[in-house]
């Protein structure tokens, strides 16, 4: 978690985090790699972002990554988060609501005013 927080400092936004998770998921769940170990995590991040970025992420994970993780955790606790996934969604009207669990994704999309596709993954998920 610290390394992923450090990654978002180096490369702000969700795109880099999504790329990292897309690579970490099969490494752990499919290939059975110990992604919690520094060497393995560095290897996985290197595949996506290159060796220099992976090295910088791992160097920042101990201090800056930890600080951001603490800040994020404190914010989640302030929002009364009690499990994962926890969503804080603000719609176009400025109304903010919180949601817990993947079984509430339909409520999140409704709150945000997103149009649900009639075919494809959303229909199956929601």
UniProtKB/TrEMBL annotation:
GO terms for cellular component: mitochondrion; peroxisome
SUPFAM superfamilies: Thioredoxin-like (SSF52833)
Cited InterPro entries: DSBA-like_thioredoxin_dom, GST_Kappa/NadH, Thioredoxin-like_sf
Pfam families: DSBA
GO molecular function, one term: glutathione transferase activity
Entry's Gene Ontology BP terms: glutathione metabolic process
Annotated DSBA-like thioredoxin domain residues: 17-112
Lineage top rank: taxon: Eukaryota
Gene3D superfamilies: Glutaredoxin
Signal peptide from the UniProt entry: none
Name of this chain's protein: DSBA-like thioredoxin domain-containing protein
Origin species: Cudoniella acicularis
């Amino acid at each position: 978690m610290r390394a992923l927080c450090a990654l978002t400092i180096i490369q702000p936004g969700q795109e880099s985090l999504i790329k990292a998770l897309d690579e970490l998921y099969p490494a752990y769940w499919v290939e059975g790699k110990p992604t919690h170990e520094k060497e393995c995590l560095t290897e996985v991040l290197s595949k996506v972002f290159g060796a220099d970025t992976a090295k910088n992420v791992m160097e920042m994970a101990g201090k800056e990554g930890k600080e951001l993780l603490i800040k994020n955790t404190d914010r989640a606790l302030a929002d009364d988060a009690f499990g994962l996934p926890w969503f804080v969604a603000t719609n176009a009207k400025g109304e903010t609501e919180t949601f817990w669990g993947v079984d509430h994704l339909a409520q999140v999309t409704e709150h945000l005013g997103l149009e649900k596709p009639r075919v494809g993954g959303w229909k199956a998920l929601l």
